[in-house]
């Protein structure tokens, strides 16, 4: 499977996302539900901590990908739902930049600030699409 970033501009590079990803030769598509900072029992980890919750939610993304036989390199889209966009930029985005950038991943995506998530102590949810 081959992926190609489609970026008519360069401004998005500093934020670690692509305008689009073209996938050729993909045999599988994985549509992932939103992943949050929850443990194996569904309990919230690190209530209210944007950086830690971002790290935990991304670890859950990787766990789901791994269960499907895929990895970060297979991601073509990530959507982020956050309860505080300013805190996301200062505390969450650096975590994502380190992990995704380190893996050479720059998926297409959307960032939305919302009033709240399913449980009051959650501050970020990450959903994605991966191809393999």
Please give the CATH class. Alpha Beta
Name the strands of the widest sheet in spatial order. Answer: 3-6-4-5
Corresponding CATH architecture:
2-Layer Sandwich
**Average of per-residue pLDDT values:** 96
Number of separate strands: 6
User: What distance lies between the first and last C-alpha atoms, to the nearest angstrom?
Assistant: 6 Å
Tally of alpha and pi helices: 2
Largest sheet: 4 strands, mixed
Q: Based on CA inertia axes, which overall geometry fits?
A: globular
How many domains in all? 1
Radius of gyration: 14 Å
Strand composition percent: 25-35%
Note the topology.
Elements: E1 2-6, E2 20-24, E3 29-35, H1 50-67, E4 75-82, H2 85-102, E5 108-113, E6 124-131
Parallel strand pairs: 4-5
Antiparallel strand pairs: 1-2, 3-6, 4-6
């Amino acid at each position: 499977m081959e992926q190609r970033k489609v970026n008519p501009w360069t401004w998005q590079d500093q934020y670690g996302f692509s305008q689009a990803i073209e996938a050729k030769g993909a045999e599988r598509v994985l549509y992932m539900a939103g992943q949050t900072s929850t443990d194996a029992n569904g309990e919230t980890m690190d209530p209210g901590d944007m950086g830690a919750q971002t790290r935990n939610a991304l670890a859950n993304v990787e766990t789901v990908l791994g269960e499907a036989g895929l990895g970060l390199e297979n991601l073509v889209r990530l959507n982020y739902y956050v309860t505080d966009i300013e805190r996301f930029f200062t505390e969450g985005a650096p975590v994502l930049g380190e992990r995704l950038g380190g893996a050479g991943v720059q998926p297409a995506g959307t960032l939305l600030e919302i009033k709240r998530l399913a449980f009051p102590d959650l501050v970020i949810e990450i959903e994605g699409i991966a191809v393999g």
